[in-house]
Structures are given as structure tokens and as C-alpha cells.
Specification:
By secondary structure, this protein is of the alpha/beta class. The protein has a domain at 271-407: Aspartate Aminotransferase, domain 1 (Alpha-Beta Complex), CATH 3.90.1150. Helix content is 37%, strand content 14%. The protein contains 15 helices and 12 strands. It has helices at residues 11-16, 47-55, 73-85, 97-107, 124-134, 151-158, 178-187, 200-203, 241-250, 257-267, 270-290, 308-314, 333-342, 372-377, 394-407; strands spanning 90-94, 115-119, 140-144, 162-166, 191-195, 213-217, 231-235, 294-298, 323-328, 347-348, 358-360, 384-388. The strands form 2 sheets. A 7-stranded mixed β-sheet has the order 1-7-6-5-4-2-3, sandwiched between helices. Strands 8-9-12-11-10 form a 5-stranded mixed β-sheet, covered by helices on one side. Bound molecules: pyridoxal-5'-phosphate (PLP). Pyridoxal-5'-phosphate binds next to helix 4 and helix 5.
């Protein structure tokens, strides 16, 4: 068989055919799925070859392996596919989304005396990383609202070294204006980083909108089955890749062969799952909007959402993501707990993006480490529920939400 030219393939095709033929010869027979290389160490023809392998590459430029923490064939295959999916220059995979975010922040140049400007609605653990690890290390951290029309002015005023945002905020699914933010960051010479976990390359590829680094928690939609923890950083340029790889290696954060295999397997159905999850989410959002027990629904696919027009422009396939939030009319923790306890199909879980529908209550999960007034200032009320819509039959999801709302 001839080696395929993948460069012309659409995302769906690319993800399904991601692992074939990279590893063995025709003579030995070719498995359609890349084997899991559990080995921690690799043997070479002679010491000179080992010397090259320890340096990371052969004189031909081909990747070579010596020790799994420095890189392994499964992680490398996953990096190649994610790099192409995001239209980047290169990618490095990590043992978790947080490890990927940490490495991206360091590679972007955060060091004592430098400054990061970030959206205030960030994923809770990312805020903790900034406050507990980077601030004590002498990094100035400024959190502000970067979803409004004054975002560019704010970046210019603060003159940060790094600008950090998320495509969609958690849990209120506010959409960031990627083009405006990347242009403003580039104007002040800041490195721009975006966490694109909620959108995936199916909905938007931020490098095409000017971002320098894209990070994902691959634990969520990419894996999609709730059985693997992983992260990735994709770089728009070659320049930061060596640094990212050094952090993966020296911080011990390289993704294992088995987890790489699981994420790769999940990616094969990413576009199918996204289609179904986005379509289900829109129907669920419309249902919740009409429900007498619901105060309001946050979902960029609804015409009333403040960024609906931006979302229609920025997100592809006429789809708006699988995640939404809604507020119960009874704005209390007790009402939220009662609703969640009444659910029979939707799972109470701290994660999102899996094949099954999952609900989360931000004050005890993603926003646990914030004070009540911090949560209120972000617009997260006591009746706010986050829902990650799964691939189940949408009628079953709606019936479950209905019975739980009605009996609460
Ligand atoms: C889950 C998540 C992370 C952290 O990823 P882990 O894989 O859990 O380390 C970062 N950002 C977002 C938006 C997330 O949802």
C-alpha cells in the first residue's frame, strides 16, 4: 500500500485514519491500529545510534526514542494528529490538561517580573495554578473580563507578556472574540494562549485566528469516554516546541503510551460525537428555556445569548458546543441539590465532554475555591447548574431533566 497523503483530508477522515502505517513494514503485516508500546526504553543498532536517539532525532530528522518520559511512539503519533487537526506547527502531549497549561505558561515566558493578563472566568484549577504556583514565583497576575468590547483596550493598557483566555467560559459559556484578542496581544508583543477544551478543533481552530499556543484538556471531548486523563499544547510556530518538550520531560509530564492510545481511539469518533452533542444541546437548551422551573439558559446557540452573532461567525458547522448552563427559578443551593439528586439518567460528575450527559454544580466543583462574592461577581448564582450534554437519545435526556425539575 502506498503511504497516504493526509494533507488534503478533512478532519473527520484524518481522525479515523490517524494511526495506520506509521510503525511497521508491509513485510511483517500492518495492524490497522497502532500497537501500544509499553516499553520504557529503546534499543539501538550501536552506541552512535543511541547517542542520536538520546538527542531526540536521527541525522535524517526522523524521531527516535530512548526513554519513554522523553517521548514514545504512541504519544508521538497523537502529537502528529493533533498538530494537523489544529493547523499548528507542532504539538506536545502531556499527562493532563493542567500539565499542558503549566508547560504552555512557562514556554510563553512567564518568569519572575513578568505579567499575565487572563480572563477572570478561567477554569478553577487554572486560576489556582496562577495564584498558588506562578504568583509566589514572582509573576504578576491580572484577571479581568475579556469578553466585552473593551478587551483590546484592556490588553493595550496592561501591556502583559502573556494573554490567556478560554474559547468558551465555564460555566456560563461566554465566547471569546479570538481575532480581537490575538490581534491585541500581538500588538503589545504578548504571547497569546487559548484553552480550547470546550470547542475542540471541530468547532474552531484558534491558530487560524492568530493564537500562538492552543491547549486542551484531552480528558474531555477528545477522549470522550471518561477513561483517560491527558492534555496537549499545539504551537503555531516551531520556536516554542523545544521548550515544551523540555518541560514535558523534565517535569515528568509526558503522556503515557496507554493514555495516548485511549485518546487516539477517542479521536476517531470526535466529529460524530460533537455533531450529536451539539445538536442535542441545542434541543435541550430550547426545552429548558420554556420550562416553568427554569429562570434562564446560557447557551451561545440561542438567539438571545449575548454572543450568539459572534458564535455564528466563529464556530463552524452551524453548531455551538455541547455545554450549557441554566439557572433554577428557586435560586438556592438546596434547590440545586434536590434537582441533581432527582436525576436518573444524567450523571452528577465534575467532568464534561463524555458520551453521557453530566451535570455539575459549580460552587462545589469547578468554582469551589472561590468565595461566594467572587462567584456572584462572575454571574454564577446559587441556582446555576452546568450541563454537559451527551450522545444519548435527546428525548430521554429531556424527559429526565423534566421529571427532575418537576419533582424538585
Ligand atoms: C478539565 C479542564 C482543564 C484541566 O484538565 P485536566 O485534564 O483535568 O488536567 C483545563 N481547562 C478546562 C477548560 C477544563 O475543562
Amino acid at each position: 500500500m502506498k503511504k497516504p497523503d493526509r494533507s488534503s483530508w478533512k478532519l473527520d477522515t484524518l481522525l479515523v485514519h490517524s494511526t495506520e502505517q506509521d510503525h511497521v513494514t508491509e513485510a511483517t503485516g500492518m495492524p490497522t491500529v497502532q500497537p501500544i508500546y509499553a516499553s520504557t526504553t529503546y534499543l539501538h543498532r550501536d552506541t552512535e545510534a543511541l547517542d542520536y536517539a538520546l538527542g531526540g532525532a536521527l541525522p535524517s530528522g526522523e524521531q527516535a526514542y530512548a526513554y519513554a518520559r522523553q517521548g514514545n511512539p504512541n504519544a508521538h503519533a497523537l502529537e502528529n494528529i493533533l498538530c494537523q487537526a489544529e493547523a499548528g506547527a507542532g504539538a506536545v502531549v502531556f499527562a493532563s490538561g493542567m500539565a499542558a497549561i503549566h508547560a504552555a505558561l512557562l514556554a510563553a515566558g512567564l518568569a519572575p517580573g513578568s505579567k499575565i493578563l487572563a480572563a477572570q472566568d478561567l477554569y478553577g484549577t487554572t486560576i489556582t495554578l496562577l495564584r498558588k504556583i506562578l504568583m509566589p514565583g514572582g509573576v504578576e497576575v491580572v484577571l479581568c473580563d475579556l469578553y466585552g468590547t473593551d478587551a483590546a483596550a484592556r490588553i493595550e493598557e496592561e501591556q502583559p507578556d502573556v494573554v490567556y483566555v478560554e474559547t468558551l467560559s465555564n460555566p456560563l459559556v461566554k465566547l471569546i472574540d479570538l481575532d480581537t484578542i490575538s490581534a491585541a496581544a500581538s500588538k503589545v508583543g504578548a504571547v497569546s494562549i487559548v484553552d480550547s477544551t470546550f470547542t475542540t478543533p471541530y468547532l474552531v481552530r484558534p491558530i487560524e485566528h492568530g493564537f500562538d499556543l492552543v491547549v486542551h484538556s484531552a480528558t474531555k471531548y477528545m477522549g470522550g469516554h471518561g477513561d483517560s486523563t491527558a492534555g496537549v499544547v499545539i504551537s503555531a510556530k516551531n520556536a516554542l516546541l523545544d521548550l515544551l518538550r523540555t518541560y514535558a520531560n523534565t517535569l515528568g509530564a509526558m503522556l503515557s503510551p496507554f493514555e495516548s492510545h485511549l485518546i487516539m481511539r477517542g479521536l476517531k469518533t470526535l466529529t460524530l460525537r460533537m455533531e450529536r452533542q451539539c445538536d442535542n444541546a441545542l434541543q435541550v437548551a430550547r426545552f429548558l428555556q420554556r420550562h416553568p422551573a427554569v429562570e434562564c439558559v446560557h447557551y451561545p446557540g440561542l438567539p438571545g445569548h449575548p454572543q450568539h452573532e459572534l458564535a455564528s461567525r466563529l464556530l463552524e458547522h452551524g453548531r455551538f458546543g455541547g455545554l450549557l448552563a441554566f439557572e433554577l427559578k428557586a435560586q438556592s443551593r438546596a434547590a440545586a441539590f434536590c434537582f441533581m439528586d432527582n436525576l436518573q439518567l444524567c450523571l452528577r460528575a465534575a467532568t464534561l465532554g463524555d458520551v453521557y450527559s453530566q451535570v455539575s454544580y459549580p460552587p462545589i466543583a469547578s468554582h469551589r475555591n472561590l468565595t461566594e462574592s467572587e462567584r456572584q461577581s462572575m454571574g454564577i448564582t446559587d441556582g446555576c447548574i452546568r450541563l454537559s450534554v451527551g450522545i444519548e437519545n435527546v428525548e430521554d435526556i429531556i424527559n429526565d431533566l423534566d421529571q427532575a425539575l418537576t419533582s424538585s
